[in-house]
Amino acid sequence: MKTVNDLLVLGNPILYEISEEILPEELPLVENWVKDLHEVMEDIRARYNFGRAIAAPQLGNMKRLIYMNITKPMVFINPKIINKSKEMFEVWDDCMCFPNLFVKVMRHNTIEIEYLDENWKTQNAVFENDLSELFQHEFDHLEGILCTMRAIDSKSFRWRI
Q1: What is the CATH number of the domain that holds 121?
Q2: Residue 25 annotated to the active site
Q3: Tell me: the pLDDT tens digits for 100-152?
Q4: Which of 13, 41, 121, 122 has the most other CB atoms within 10 Å of its CB?
Q5: Which one of 20, 21, 138, 143 is the catalytic residue?
Q6: pTM (2 d.p.)
Q7: Beta partners for 76?
Q8: CA separation (Å) from 111 to 27, 53, 130, 135, 142?
Q9: Domain span at 96
């Protein structure tokens, strides 16, 4: 079982690697991976009072898996962003891998995604505004991109107070 101590922190080179697709034969492993993601996210929530989603690479599991829990748990296996709005907005982003730092980034207002659920069934979803930003942040983790790399400029950083 993974704990918050397994969470990779800013500067760890693994965070900059592109994750691999989950294979059909790995589906039985997903349940335990999701439990790990859930436990670590709950610990971050208790410690820092934030955390709505987490990506497997944040725990060193280089698989294309995102776990989101806002009103209910949602699992996204091998997600793809298939459409992005041209309209974008500016937001102060934070990350469990550097919980005391905010980074100002630009995100698409709306995205459409395709993914596999826990039953290996293809699903589609559309996210807008804060959920769009959240999913883009987690998807970036799958691509080895941190929000620090998307900062608007060199002044787009501030400490959480």
Answers
A1: 3.90.45.10
A2: no
A3: 999 999 999 999 999 999 999 999 999 999 999 999 999 999 999 999 999 99
A4: 41
A5: 138
A6: 0.97
A7: 66
A8: 26, 16, 11, 9, 16
A9: 4-159
